[in-house]
Amino acid sequence: MPRGLKETSSQIVVSFSLTETAPNTLTSERIDLQLNALDQEVFVVTGMKLDLDTPDLVLGGVGTARTAVFASVSKQSLANATDLTLGNPSIIGTAQIITREIVDNYGGAEASGYATSIIEDGTDTPATLEYIDVIATPDFFVNINGSSNIAAKSCSGKLYGYRARADAATYAALVQSELLSS
Q1: Main-chain phi, psi angles of 20, to 5 degrees
Q2: Is 170 helix (H, G, I), strand (E, B) or coil?
Q3: C-beta of residue 145 within 8 angstroms of C-beta of residue 25
Q4: Pick from 48, 7, 33, 2: which is nearest to 158 by CA?
Q5: Cβ(141)–Cβ(35) under 8 Å?
Q6: What's this model's pTM, rounded to 2 decimal places?
Q7: Using an 8 Å Cβ cutoff, are 143 and 50 in contact?
Q8: What are the beta bridge partners of residue 72?
Q9: What is the sign, positive or negative, of the torsion defined by CA atoms of 30, 33, 10, 43?
């Protein structure tokens, strides 16, 4: 248990899903946790899972074509797609799927194939950690952004955690840190 917090609920699972408003457009949705600020209630995140649509296979014809789907869970809304990385202090976890068309002219015969990489930073949390993050404001955001896709892409997921009550100093520090991280 993080110092300065007292657990007030058992494990809670918050489910969500989100579809881009248009192909390759950063789309965010606010998910309400219904935390009680008067009781200095916070949400201690113990895990998360993001499932993404597969990127479209787009034939590039020359060289390599790349399509991708990026998603994240954050404590604050995001201003642009470059904020989707773990380098942003507001980000709790990310996931991405990237598909590349590989065209090779080997021995005079053109051959092509696809390579797909799947990265889920949200599930890379070491098992020795008690928690991933603490959300002090009453909501969190789910974000998705495709790249070079023909159709709008979707993500769905779950955020795992429990409610806790913070002492006054801890609550003030958590809220200030969260609001300044945006």
Answers
A1: -55, 145
A2: helix
A3: yes
A4: 48
A5: no
A6: 0.86
A7: no
A8: 94, 143
A9: positive
